Amino acid sequence: MEIALRSLAVYVAIVVLLRLGGRRQLGQLTPFDLVALLLVSNAVQNAMVGDDVSVPGGIVSAATLLSVAAVMVHLRARLPWIRRLVEGTGPTVLVQNGAFNERNLARVGLAHDDVLRALREHAEVDDVTHVRLAVLETDGTVSIVPMSADVQQSQTKVTTR
Q1: What is this structure's pTM?
Q2: Structure confidence at residue 149 as a pLDDT band (50, 70, 90)
Q3: Backbone φ, ψ for residue 48 (5° rounding)
Q4: Which of 7, 30, 79, 150 is 20 to 30 Å apart from 130, CA to CA?
Q5: Is residue 3 pLDDT above 60, yes or no?
Q6: What single-letter DSSP state applies at residue 51?
Q7: Helical H runs in the chain?
Q8: Residues 60 and 22 in one domain
Q9: Is the Cβ–Cβ distance between 91 and 135 less than 8 Å?
Q10: Structural domain of residue 54, as residue ranges?
Q11: Do 96 and 118 fall into the same domain?
């Protein structure tokens, strides 16, 4: 029982720390984030199992973590306040009408290069001016709405006057 309680406490602590770290880490791990996550898993192992390094102790810890994760998925789907607590309040606009939203980029800890990489990967767009809307979703993914040809032409006419 002690291992299950320790594992539960570590699970909650890690979820809170990841949530405080922002959505970017959940959806777009950099090599530094991955290394940190791997080291965290090693660092908290003893906190979960204590001196019990037996196979049953590891199984109890793993079963607890997987059970809590399954319960959280269920609660998140049924209780909006849990969803807001874990995922945040909603999507964040990163690009609107061809321009970066600097305030939101700073708030979520993303650089222009991060957004441009997402534009190239997901929308095959290489210039922010060709994007009507880019949104950081609550799950850490970036949704992109490119400008239509008509909108691009009208913007070109406005900017060349």
Answers
A1: 0.55
A2: very low
A3: -85, -45
A4: 30
A5: yes
A6: T
A7: 2-21, 23-27, 31-49, 55-78, 80-87, 102-108, 112-123, 149-160
A8: yes
A9: yes
A10: 2-87
A11: yes
